[in-house]
């Protein structure tokens, strides 16, 4: 698989998991009240693109128009510029299940070799910054898009909406980011 296809697949995954309403951190006259309501509050320090964005080493490529990369060559991930994830509640009786996924997170490291580590020793945790919450639920880490540009992927279920700090740890490296998790109206599925 070519590096361009890798970037395209990650961008597609991000777009396909995005809530079905537009998201923005700044209000504009063209926004609907639902869009302004979905934007992160000022009290949630969502991770935004840094002034000096991370450029991954070859053969990887930078993120797309609606996404950006954060981290170092030892551990990085791709985030939506909106800083927002959509959230749906569990069905009663399924509280310990990872489904429905809140999001999939792709992690990359120059130290990751999918051939020798098909089940990466990636640990992902999360904590709510604006209140108490049960722990983040995660799927086991797996390899993603094996080829010249391998990545690790993990599915997460955030148990409550709010401001969440997500942390990935891999081979002694740690990377954290903050997202605003907002309920998606049930009609927007």
What does it look like?
By secondary structure, the chain is mainly beta. It has one domain: Immunoglobulin-like. Helix content is 11%, strand content 32%. Strands 1, 2, 4, 6, 7 and 8 form a six-stranded antiparallel β-sheet that branches. A four-stranded mixed β-sheet has the order 3-10-9-5, with no helix packed on it. The chain is globular and about 45 Å long. The two termini are 31 Å apart.
Shape: globular
The CATH class designation is Mainly Beta
CATH topology: Immunoglobulin-like
Structural class: mainly beta
The CATH architecture comes to: Sandwich
Element-by-element helix/strand order:
HHEEEEEEEEEE
Look at the structure and name the CATH superfamily.
Immunoglobulins
Number of domains: 1
**Residue-averaged pLDDT, rounded?**
80
Relative strand content: 25-35%
How many helices in DSSP terms? 2
Which sheet architecture does the biggest sheet show? Answer: 6 strands, antiparallel
Poorly predicted parts: 1-35
Distance between the termini: 31 Å
Question: Using only CA atoms, what is the Rg?
Answer: 16 Å
Bin the helical content.
Answer: 10-25%
Count of extended strands:
10
């Amino acid at each position: 698989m070519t590096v361009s296809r890798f970037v395209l697949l990650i961008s597609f995954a991000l777009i396909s998991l995005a809530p079905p309403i537009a998201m923005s951190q700044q209000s504009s006259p063209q926004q609907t009240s639902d869009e302004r309501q979905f934007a992160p509050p000022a009290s949630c320090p969502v991770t935004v693109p840094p002034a000096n964005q991370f450029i991954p080493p070859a053969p990887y490529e930078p993120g797309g128009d609606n996404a950006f990369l954060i981290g170092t060559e030892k551990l990085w991930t791709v985030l939506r510029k909106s800083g927002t994830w959509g959230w749906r509640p569990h069905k009663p009786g399924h509280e310990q299940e990872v489904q429905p996924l809140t999001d999939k997170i792709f992690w990359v490291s120059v130290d990751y070799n999918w051939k020798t580590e098909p089940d990466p020793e990636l640990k992902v945790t999360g904590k709510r910054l604006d209140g108490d919450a049960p722990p983040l639920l995660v799927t086991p880490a797996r390899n993603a898009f094996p080829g010249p540009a391998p990545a690790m992927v993990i599915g997460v279920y955030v148990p409550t909406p709010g401001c969440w700090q997500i942390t990935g740890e891999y081979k002694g490296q740690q990377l954290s980011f903050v997202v605003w998790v907002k309920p998606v109206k049930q009609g927007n599925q």
